[in-house]
Batch of 2 targets.
Target 1
Amino acid sequence: MSVVHRASRTLAASFLCLVPACATVLDFKEPTDAPASQEGCACVPAAPADWDGPLAFYEGSGGPPPPVAPACAGAYPTVAFDGTAGIVAPAARCGCSCGEASGMRCDPPRVSFFKDGSCTVPCGTPDQPIAAGPTCTPLAIAGCSGTHFSVKAGGASGGACPPSPTRDVPPSGWSITARLCRLPAPASRGACEEGRVCAAPTALPFAPNRFCIARPGSWQCPAEYPDAHTYHHGATDTRDCSACTCEPPAGATCSATTLATYDRADCTGGEKKWAPPRACDKIESAHGLSTPGTPAGVATCAPRGGAPTGDVVPTTPTTVCCSS
């Protein structure tokens, strides 16, 4: 964990002047000539309208959690602003799997009719489903002569797999903390030139001889305080996982499906049984019924969803602008 003071230790004479009690300007040539804060003050640009300052500035990094900001004290005893930056928010950890399939059924066999013995000239209704008994289905062979038919076995359908989602949203946190402290009373011009005010020098643990201004919201920094920072008072967390669902079961087969044809409309007389699939057989009956098969084999469902969504978005910004 580290603490960043963002200090500028070189005071340009055109920007800062130190004056005892803000009354007499001290002329010093080198940064090492700067007097202690209790012996004077710095002439710094006055804060523009709607901005708060000049303020002492602290920024610490190394989290989450970030370092605890030092207390405001000395010449800057009052907290003007506390904020955070550098949100750390890992994506949600999501998973989606599907349990065992259940509720599947075997569809009825389907028959198609043809006029020729090689089943190349269709007639009647193609792919006619033959319902399970006791329902007796009239065969759709109108317009057919010398009828032949093909039989397709019914496939497994329906059913479902229970979804099994997992969801873990890690905690979020900030990696940077900031604190600004203000003077006990608004800074006055004193002996400073027009447009500047007299402010006590800042010192460690705050950025030494660095002054800042602050304003709620997002703003462009004025030229006198060009070093821009944005800190926040909160965040909106929308991290989550998308819904976990399962595709219909696949992979099962149907066994023991049978088709029986009959001469009469109540499915009696001239019974003949067929085990689908059948490629091409001659049929002389006009009615039929089926015996449903039993789903067999291992059916599985493909999972869908369970992906990370959302983010953490910082809210309630405050713009902090500092001397370079």
Target 2
Amino acid sequence: MDRATLKAVFLGKMTRWPDRTRIRVGFLKGQPVSRLFLRDVLKKTEHQYQNLWNQAIFTGQGLPPKWFSDKRSLVLFVKNQPGAIGFLFHKDIPPDLVSEVLVFQVEDGDEALVGQPR
């Protein structure tokens, strides 16, 4: 998945996958991987990202991310929610769940996206 698509997905500009499944974003709150992803891919701080979604909710435009405080919960959400996607360092995907989700490597780094197999 390229960075332009990632940006569109995580900023709510792309709301459905090519198969028309609604995209559900899971996001780790306050984690180093989140700050890196926000800075390098979305060009935002966590505060700016939350404000973007607060405004979208207030105006009725978009389905906000589901926020998580732990990695396992994020991966379980992605595993069990149709159309879900999340973002972790590859090394942080729980070993017992790595085969349960589709893992995408992001260009030039250790980051990984996890999503349901299609």
